[in-house]
Design the sequence.
Protein backbone atom coordinates (compact mmCIF):
# COMPACT_ATOMS: atom_id res chain seq x y z
CA UNK A 1 0.00 0.00 0.00
CA UNK A 2 1.32 3.46 -0.91
CA UNK A 3 2.39 5.67 1.97
CA UNK A 4 -0.18 8.23 3.05
CA UNK A 5 0.88 11.72 2.02
CA UNK A 6 0.48 14.59 4.46
CA UNK A 7 -1.27 17.71 3.19
CA UNK A 8 0.37 21.12 3.59
CA UNK A 9 -2.58 23.45 4.08
CA UNK A 10 -0.36 26.52 3.71
CA UNK A 11 0.29 25.85 0.00
CA UNK A 12 -3.04 27.19 -1.25
CA UNK A 13 -6.69 27.75 -0.32
CA UNK A 14 -7.71 24.46 -2.02
CA UNK A 15 -5.05 22.61 -0.01
CA UNK A 16 -6.31 24.14 3.24
CA UNK A 17 -9.88 23.20 2.32
CA UNK A 18 -8.83 19.67 1.39
CA UNK A 19 -6.88 19.19 4.60
CA UNK A 20 -9.93 20.15 6.63
CA UNK A 21 -12.04 17.74 4.58
CA UNK A 22 -9.66 14.86 5.27
CA UNK A 23 -9.55 15.71 8.99
CA UNK A 24 -13.36 15.73 9.24
CA UNK A 25 -13.68 12.51 7.26
CA UNK A 26 -11.12 10.63 9.33
CA UNK A 27 -12.58 12.02 12.55
CA UNK A 28 -15.89 10.47 11.46
CA UNK A 29 -14.11 7.15 10.90
CA UNK A 30 -15.05 6.96 7.22
CA UNK A 31 -13.05 5.86 4.21
CA UNK A 32 -13.05 7.78 0.95
CA UNK A 33 -15.37 5.20 -0.58
CA UNK A 34 -17.81 5.33 2.33
CA UNK A 35 -17.89 9.13 2.11
CA UNK A 36 -18.82 9.27 -1.58
CA UNK A 37 -21.40 6.46 -1.47
CA UNK A 38 -24.73 7.80 -2.68
CA UNK A 39 -23.09 10.53 -4.81
CA UNK A 40 -22.10 10.51 -8.47
CA UNK A 41 -18.39 10.84 -7.67
CA UNK A 42 -15.64 8.31 -7.06
CA UNK A 43 -13.22 7.87 -4.17
CA UNK A 44 -10.23 8.93 -6.29
CA UNK A 45 -11.96 12.21 -7.12
CA UNK A 46 -12.55 12.96 -3.44
CA UNK A 47 -8.93 12.08 -2.71
CA UNK A 48 -7.76 14.68 -5.21
CA UNK A 49 -9.99 17.28 -3.54
CA UNK A 50 -8.44 16.43 -0.17
CA UNK A 51 -4.97 16.97 -1.61
CA UNK A 52 -5.97 20.33 -3.09
CA UNK A 53 -5.73 19.10 -6.68
CA UNK A 54 -9.41 19.36 -7.57
CA UNK A 55 -12.28 21.77 -7.04
CA UNK A 56 -15.18 20.58 -4.88
CA UNK A 57 -18.43 20.64 -6.91
CA UNK A 58 -21.28 22.17 -4.93
CA UNK A 59 -23.46 19.05 -5.18
CA UNK A 60 -20.64 16.90 -3.79
CA UNK A 61 -19.99 19.48 -1.06
CA UNK A 62 -23.63 19.26 0.04
CA UNK A 63 -23.39 15.45 0.05
CA UNK A 64 -20.22 15.57 2.17
CA UNK A 65 -21.85 17.98 4.63
CA UNK A 66 -24.74 15.52 5.10
CA UNK A 67 -22.47 12.50 5.52
CA UNK A 68 -19.98 14.19 7.85
CA UNK A 69 -22.56 16.34 9.69
CA UNK A 70 -20.51 19.48 9.09
CA UNK A 71 -23.42 21.95 9.17
CA UNK A 72 -23.03 23.09 5.55
CA UNK A 73 -19.37 24.15 5.97
CA UNK A 74 -18.03 22.61 2.77
CA UNK A 75 -20.97 23.79 0.64
CA UNK A 76 -20.61 27.34 2.00
CA UNK A 77 -16.88 27.48 1.27
CA UNK A 78 -16.55 25.59 -2.02
CA UNK A 79 -17.27 28.67 -4.18
CA UNK A 80 -14.63 30.72 -2.32
CA UNK A 81 -12.15 27.91 -2.90
CA UNK A 82 -12.99 27.86 -6.60
CA UNK A 83 -12.43 31.62 -6.87
CA UNK A 84 -9.11 31.31 -5.07
CA UNK A 85 -7.98 28.99 -7.86
CA UNK A 86 -4.99 26.76 -7.73
CA UNK A 87 -2.21 29.09 -8.80
CA UNK A 88 1.29 28.18 -7.76
CA UNK A 89 4.93 28.52 -8.77
CA UNK A 90 6.12 26.25 -11.58
CA UNK A 91 7.52 23.61 -9.17
CA UNK A 92 3.92 22.79 -8.24
CA UNK A 93 3.50 21.37 -11.73
CA UNK A 94 3.97 18.22 -9.64
CA UNK A 95 0.19 18.28 -9.11
CA UNK A 96 -0.48 18.37 -12.84
CA UNK A 97 2.19 15.72 -13.34
CA UNK A 98 0.34 13.36 -11.01
CA UNK A 99 -2.78 13.86 -13.12
CA UNK A 100 -0.76 13.42 -16.30
CA UNK A 101 0.27 9.96 -15.12
CA UNK A 102 -3.39 8.91 -14.93
CA UNK A 103 -4.63 10.70 -18.04
CA UNK A 104 -6.46 8.79 -20.75
CA UNK A 105 -5.87 11.55 -23.30
CA UNK A 106 -3.63 14.64 -23.49
CA UNK A 107 -3.92 17.60 -25.85
CA UNK A 108 -1.16 20.19 -25.76
CA UNK A 109 -0.36 23.50 -27.38
CA UNK A 110 3.00 25.24 -27.19
CA UNK A 111 3.97 28.37 -29.08
CA UNK A 112 7.60 28.52 -27.93
CA UNK A 113 9.21 25.12 -27.26
CA UNK A 114 8.96 21.38 -27.94
CA UNK A 115 6.65 19.70 -25.36
CA UNK A 116 8.44 18.64 -22.17
CA UNK A 117 7.90 14.87 -22.32
CA UNK A 118 9.65 14.58 -25.71
CA UNK A 119 12.49 17.03 -25.09
CA UNK A 120 15.92 15.41 -25.44
CA UNK A 121 18.46 16.27 -22.74
CA UNK A 122 20.62 18.79 -24.70
CA UNK A 123 17.53 20.76 -25.75
CA UNK A 124 16.09 20.79 -22.23
CA UNK A 125 19.44 21.85 -20.75
CA UNK A 126 19.51 24.91 -23.02
CA UNK A 127 16.01 25.90 -21.90
CA UNK A 128 16.92 25.49 -18.21
CA UNK A 129 20.13 27.49 -18.59
CA UNK A 130 18.27 30.32 -20.32
CA UNK A 131 15.49 30.50 -17.72
CA UNK A 132 17.63 29.80 -14.63
CA UNK A 133 21.28 30.76 -15.31
CA UNK A 134 22.05 30.63 -11.56
CA UNK A 135 21.28 26.89 -11.24
CA UNK A 136 24.31 24.71 -10.53
CA UNK A 137 24.97 21.44 -12.36
CA UNK A 138 23.48 19.33 -9.57
CA UNK A 139 20.18 21.19 -9.87
CA UNK A 140 20.18 20.89 -13.66
CA UNK A 141 20.83 17.13 -13.49
CA UNK A 142 17.93 16.78 -11.06
CA UNK A 143 15.58 18.68 -13.39
CA UNK A 144 16.72 16.64 -16.38
CA UNK A 145 15.92 13.42 -14.51
CA UNK A 146 12.44 14.70 -13.61
CA UNK A 147 11.78 15.80 -17.19
CA UNK A 148 12.88 12.49 -18.70
CA UNK A 149 10.77 10.60 -16.15
CA UNK A 150 7.75 12.00 -18.03
CA UNK A 151 8.95 10.67 -21.39
CA UNK A 152 6.58 7.71 -21.25
CA UNK A 153 3.61 10.09 -21.67
CA UNK A 154 4.36 10.50 -25.38
CA UNK A 155 7.06 7.92 -26.08
CA UNK A 156 5.59 4.68 -24.73
CA UNK A 157 3.40 2.70 -27.12
CA UNK A 158 0.79 2.20 -24.39
CA UNK A 159 0.84 5.83 -23.22
CA UNK A 160 -2.25 8.06 -23.35
CA UNK A 161 -3.60 9.17 -26.70
CA UNK A 162 -1.76 12.47 -27.23
CA UNK A 163 -2.26 15.34 -29.66
CA UNK A 164 0.18 18.26 -29.83
CA UNK A 165 0.06 21.44 -31.89
CA UNK A 166 3.33 23.37 -32.32
CA UNK A 167 3.80 26.80 -33.82
CA UNK A 168 6.14 26.75 -36.84
CA UNK A 169 8.49 29.16 -35.04
CA UNK A 170 9.33 26.33 -32.62
CA UNK A 171 11.00 24.52 -35.54
CA UNK A 172 12.89 27.64 -36.64
CA UNK A 173 14.24 28.79 -33.27
CA UNK A 174 17.75 27.22 -32.97
CA UNK A 175 17.74 26.27 -29.30
CA UNK A 176 21.25 25.06 -28.48
CA UNK A 177 22.49 25.23 -32.07
CA UNK A 178 21.97 23.16 -35.19
CA UNK A 179 23.16 19.81 -33.81
CA UNK A 180 20.81 20.03 -30.84
CA UNK A 181 17.87 21.02 -33.03
CA UNK A 182 18.59 18.24 -35.52
CA UNK A 183 18.55 15.66 -32.72
CA UNK A 184 15.45 17.16 -31.11
CA UNK A 185 13.33 17.37 -34.25
CA UNK A 186 14.39 13.92 -35.43
CA UNK A 187 13.25 12.59 -32.05
CA UNK A 188 9.85 14.30 -32.40
CA UNK A 189 9.46 12.79 -35.87
CA UNK A 190 10.32 9.32 -34.54
CA UNK A 191 7.82 9.56 -31.68
CA UNK A 192 5.18 10.90 -34.07
CA UNK A 193 5.52 7.73 -36.11
CA UNK A 194 3.44 5.93 -33.48
CA UNK A 195 -0.33 5.99 -33.64
CA UNK A 196 -0.73 7.08 -30.00
CA UNK A 197 0.95 10.46 -30.67
CA UNK A 198 -0.19 13.02 -33.26
CA UNK A 199 1.65 16.28 -33.94
CA UNK A 200 0.52 19.23 -36.05
CA UNK A 201 2.34 22.41 -37.00
CA UNK A 202 0.55 25.75 -37.08
CA UNK A 203 2.16 27.70 -39.97
CA UNK A 204 3.54 31.18 -39.30
CA UNK A 205 1.50 32.49 -42.22
CA UNK A 206 -1.76 31.49 -40.54
CA UNK A 207 -2.42 34.84 -38.86
CA UNK A 208 -3.98 35.21 -35.37
CA UNK A 209 -4.83 32.03 -33.46
CA UNK A 210 -6.11 30.91 -30.03
CA UNK A 211 -3.59 30.54 -27.19
CA UNK A 212 -1.15 33.10 -28.58
CA UNK A 213 0.78 33.10 -25.28
CA UNK A 214 1.99 30.39 -22.89
CA UNK A 215 1.34 26.66 -23.10
CA UNK A 216 -1.82 24.70 -22.44
CA UNK A 217 -2.48 21.06 -21.51
CA UNK A 218 -5.95 19.52 -21.65
CA UNK A 219 -6.21 16.19 -19.82
CA UNK A 220 -9.11 13.73 -19.84
CA UNK A 221 -9.60 10.78 -17.49
CA UNK A 222 -11.63 7.60 -17.39
CA UNK A 223 -12.78 8.17 -13.80
CA UNK A 224 -12.91 11.96 -13.38
CA UNK A 225 -13.89 15.15 -15.25
CA UNK A 226 -11.28 16.76 -17.55
CA UNK A 227 -8.93 19.55 -16.43
CA UNK A 228 -6.81 22.25 -18.08
CA UNK A 229 -3.32 23.20 -16.95
CA UNK A 230 -1.90 26.50 -18.21
CA UNK A 231 1.71 27.48 -17.72
CA UNK A 232 3.82 30.58 -18.16
CA UNK A 233 7.56 30.98 -17.73
CA UNK A 234 7.54 30.77 -13.93
CA UNK A 235 4.04 29.84 -12.83
CA UNK A 236 1.17 27.49 -13.59
CA UNK A 237 -2.51 27.08 -12.82
CA UNK A 238 -4.98 24.18 -12.83
CA UNK A 239 -8.51 24.87 -14.08
CA UNK A 240 -11.28 22.36 -13.45
CA UNK A 241 -14.35 24.58 -13.66
CA UNK A 242 -16.45 22.85 -16.39
CA UNK A 243 -17.27 26.11 -18.18
CA UNK A 244 -13.60 27.13 -18.37
CA UNK A 245 -12.53 23.66 -19.53
CA UNK A 246 -15.10 23.76 -22.34
CA UNK A 247 -13.79 27.16 -23.48
CA UNK A 248 -10.24 25.83 -23.66
CA UNK A 249 -11.36 22.67 -25.46
CA UNK A 250 -13.24 24.65 -28.08
CA UNK A 251 -10.24 26.95 -28.59
CA UNK A 252 -7.96 23.93 -29.01
CA UNK A 253 -10.34 22.50 -31.61
CA UNK A 254 -10.09 25.76 -33.58
CA UNK A 255 -6.32 25.70 -33.25
CA UNK A 256 -6.15 22.12 -34.50
CA UNK A 257 -8.35 23.00 -37.47
CA UNK A 258 -6.02 25.88 -38.43
CA UNK A 259 -2.87 23.72 -38.27
CA UNK A 260 -1.39 21.70 -41.11
CA UNK A 261 -2.61 18.07 -41.42
CA UNK A 262 -0.56 15.54 -39.39
CA UNK A 263 1.28 14.03 -42.40
CA UNK A 264 2.22 17.42 -43.80
CA UNK A 265 3.28 18.55 -40.33
CA UNK A 266 5.49 15.48 -39.93
CA UNK A 267 7.15 16.14 -43.30
CA UNK A 268 7.86 19.72 -42.22
CA UNK A 269 9.44 18.52 -38.97
CA UNK A 270 11.57 15.92 -40.78
CA UNK A 271 12.69 18.51 -43.34
CA UNK A 272 13.66 20.95 -40.59
CA UNK A 273 15.65 18.22 -38.80
CA UNK A 274 17.50 17.41 -42.04
CA UNK A 275 18.15 21.11 -42.65
CA UNK A 276 19.84 21.45 -39.27
CA UNK A 277 21.80 18.19 -39.64
CA UNK A 278 23.12 19.01 -43.12
CA UNK A 279 24.26 22.52 -42.24
CA UNK A 280 21.94 24.13 -44.77
CA UNK A 281 20.30 26.28 -42.14
CA UNK A 282 23.65 27.51 -40.85
CA UNK A 283 24.76 28.41 -44.39
CA UNK A 284 21.56 30.37 -45.00
CA UNK A 285 22.02 32.27 -41.74
CA UNK A 286 25.57 33.18 -42.73
CA UNK A 287 24.41 34.27 -46.18
CA UNK A 288 21.75 36.53 -44.63
CA UNK A 289 24.31 37.95 -42.20
CA UNK A 290 26.76 38.82 -44.99
CA UNK A 291 23.97 40.24 -47.15
CA UNK A 292 22.80 42.40 -44.25
CA UNK A 293 26.34 43.71 -43.66
CA UNK A 294 26.68 44.53 -47.35
CA UNK A 295 23.39 46.43 -47.35
CA UNK A 296 24.44 48.39 -44.27
CA UNK A 297 27.76 49.29 -45.92
CA UNK A 298 26.02 50.54 -49.06
CA UNK A 299 23.55 52.57 -47.00
CA UNK A 300 26.38 54.29 -45.15
CA UNK A 301 27.82 55.42 -48.48
CA UNK A 302 24.60 57.02 -49.78
CA UNK A 303 24.15 60.77 -49.31
CA UNK A 304 20.67 61.58 -48.07
CA UNK A 305 18.88 64.73 -49.36
CA UNK A 306 19.47 67.63 -47.00
CA UNK A 307 22.54 66.04 -45.33
Sequence:
Amino acid sequence: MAARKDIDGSVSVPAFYGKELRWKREAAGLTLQQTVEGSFYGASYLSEIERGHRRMPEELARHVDRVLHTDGFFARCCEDVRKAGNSAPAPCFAQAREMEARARGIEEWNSTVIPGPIQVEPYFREIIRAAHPHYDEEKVVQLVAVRRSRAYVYEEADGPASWTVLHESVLRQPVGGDDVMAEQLAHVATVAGRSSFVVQVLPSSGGPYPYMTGSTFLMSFSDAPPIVYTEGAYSGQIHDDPNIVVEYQQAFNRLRAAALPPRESLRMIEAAAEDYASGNRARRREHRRLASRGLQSRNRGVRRPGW
